[in-house]
Amino acid sequence: MDLSAINPILLLASLMVAATPIMLAAIGELVVERAGVLNLGVEGMMITGAACGMIFAYNTGNAWLGFAGAAAGGMALSFLFAILTQYFLSNQVATGLALTLFGLGLSALLGQNYAEARPPAFPKMDIPILSDIPVLGPIAFNHDPMVYVGLILVAGVWAFLKFSRAGLVLRAVGENHEAAHALGYHVIRIRILAILFGGACAGLGGAYISLVRVPQWTEGMTAGAGWIALAIVVFAGWKPVRLLLGAYLFGGVTVLQLNLQAAGLAIPVEYLSMSPYIATILVLVILSAGRAPGSLGKTFHASR
Amino acid sequence: MLTLEKRPQPSQAWTYLAPLVAVVVTMIVGGAVFAMLGKPPLESIRTIFWDPLFGEFAAFDRPELVKKAGPLVLIALGLSFGFRAGIWNIGAEGQYIMGAIFGAGIALAFYPMEARWLIFPLMIIAGMVGGMLWAMIPGLLKVKFKTNEILVSLMLVYVADFMLDSMSLGLLRNPEGHGFPGSRNLQQYASAYNGDLIAGTGLHWGVIAALFAVVVSYIALSRHIFGFNVRLAGQSPRAAAFSGVNANRLVLVCMGISGALAGAAGMFEVAGPSGQILSSFNVGYGFTAIIVAFLGRLHPIGILLAGCLMALTYIGGETAQLTLGLPRSAVQLFQGMLLFFLLAVDLFTNFRIRLTAKEAA
Q: ipTM of this model?
């Protein structure tokens, strides 16, 4: 084994890339859950986003349009979830599972002709001046634009929830939908908007895997990333800043095990590949210390 | 204007009707999807739902149907207890894999000794223990640390999947397999082979176990205090706590049952239809069983029927792949759609739609 083959700067730089899909999906789900809705369909929306992203990017030759298509695809799927849980008042856990199973099937069907396709290049962008800083420059300021989109989204959600009036209303709906309804807020409408936002974010996260991280389309390629995103929301205690930490922690484990595989560690590859999932379980057990939104997962029906 | 009005009691009629309506709606929408894919819709639907039972080659398909329904019913029955009590074990796929690894592990440990009376029962026990241990991880973490069992059980599916890869390449690899991955084929080991009990029917011990489990579950749910407690905990956790139901014990028991049955299903599969530990061993029965459990209304008889229907879509889907060139994933989509529509139609079970005059503001 040759540990010196692992370059810490490259490791940290690829950590940011590995964390991005999870971060995108998780920040969307965080907003959904703060509105009191538990959407377990993140994995299904992500994989659909991955397929849609490839289809749009390949056919238009533009990665940005791919991401837009992926967001639309994730949103379309989350719209199904919204209709079912908000209007048809179905159980959110069961509906979320259905969404994941449906999404896995749908994406396989959509992507069946794209197994050989290569997406258009999505160039890195050098942030002037900042990327010239030694060590920190290549780690943090020399990535493709979606890495920064993810960070901006996290910051945006943080500010939205903390400072804006709409964010306050969204949190009120999530904490106690009866009270929010009594105050005259449109619980259903707010929740649907939150669900759609979550769907778009999950779609983006999925597309990041198929367009940048891998980059190609294979069935089931998200490999549980959507579930890990759900776990990170719990770990983060429903707070955006801690979510960032969780995503990087997970990204770190993923990248480290890949590097150890490449360095030829004496542990068999299969056991190294398990480590991100086991790390997620450990993190859930040891570090989750948040309080869930009061109305999380409960169905709202304004009865008279 | 249409408004929803909660029924004082869930509608009995809709409880039974909802799955049927969902199946019909899925066929219609599914047909539309097939038409969009450029396949003849009616022929596709007939190939999937009719031909495996009554078509030209039904004699080949019917045993396959039984073999596929067996594990689905067995896993779904185990899941139904937890789902009723609000305990969401969605990692049955992982428990199924671990059951197979444990069961095959015992068989291979005894190879080439011939002693069916000893080895086969031991394999069944090992399979159940393997699945149960794997399900106990989320169960115990939930009880001790209040960790979300949905996420943990699901993460463990991926871990089990890698474990399967590792076993087929390492510990359980066939030493006479010329370096190919995969264990010895248990179909060629008489003491371990879970073959058809009556040749050509597909009726192996796993199917018998599934039928037996249907009867036991039915009795447990409708005639035993355990079933009452499970239903009580699901409908009103507070009332259950006051009546002395130990919530933690219920979590462990429900996880244990579902894990043991999923593990048994895995063991019967690896010793029978599949034959060997290989990375392609699991085909998603653990996830499809979730659909089966809901489609069967979490009721043992319903699960039996739903399991047969889902098995039908697998077989019919395979036929449609060959004859009509329908993509494999179309069936998966179909199964997901079915659960969707079921959940939507269920609205009518709990709510009534009323036509009301629009109120003056």
A: 0.86
Instruction: Look at residue A295 and tell me if it is in a domain.
Output: no
Q: Shortest CB distance from A40 goes to which of B150, B152, B343?
A: B150
Asked if the Cβ–Cβ distance from B327 to A109 is below 8 Å, we say: yes
Measured CA to CA in angstroms, residue B86 lies from B89, B90, B233, B236 at distances of 9, 12, 7, 10
Average the pLDDT over A74-88 and give the result: 91
Extract the tokens encoding A93: 């856990």
- A303, part of any domain: no
Inter-chain touch A106–B336, beta carbons under 8 Å: yes
Of A101, A108, A288, the CB nearest to B339: A101
Domain range for B227: 59-326
- pLDDT reported for residue B361: 46
From first CA to last CA, the distance across chain B in angstroms is 14
The reply to whether residue B151 touches residue A91, judged by beta carbons under 8 angstroms, is no
CA–CA gap between residue B193 and residue B189 (Å, rounded): 6
pLDDT category, B321, cuts 50, 70, 90? confident
Domain span including residue A61: 3-287
DSSP per residue, B309-332: HHHHHHHHHHHHHHHH---HHHHH
Q: How many domains does chain B have?
A: 1
Cross-chain CB nearest to A227 (options B5, B155, B331):
B155
- Within 8 A of A93 by CB-CB distance, chain B residues are 88, 150
As a whole number of angstroms, the distance between CA A79 and CA B225 comes to 41
Residue B346 lies inside a defined structural domain of this protein: no
Cβ–Cβ below 8 Å for A106 and B333: yes
Q: Do A95 and B88 touch (CB under 8 A)?
A: no
CATH of the domain at B291: 1.10.3470
CATH code where residue A160 lies: 1.10.3470
Quick: pLDDT tens for A13-33: 888 888 999 999 999 999 999
Q: Determine phi and psi for B359, rounding to 5 degrees.
A: -70, 145
Q: Whole-prediction pTM value?
A: 0.89
User: For the segment B178-202, what is each residue's pLDDT rounded down to a tens digit?
Assistant: 878 888 888 888 777 887 888 778 7
User: For B154, which of A89, A227, A301 is closest by C-beta distance?
Assistant: A227
In a domain, A20, yes or no: yes
Cβ <8 Å between A224 and B329: no
* Beta bridge partner(s), residue B330: none
Give me the number of domains chain A comprises.
Answer: 1
Asked whether residue B286 is domain-assigned, the answer is yes
Residue A44: inside a domain: yes
Q: Binning pLDDT at 50, 70 and 90, where does residue B307 land?
A: very high
CA distance B200 to chain A (A): 32
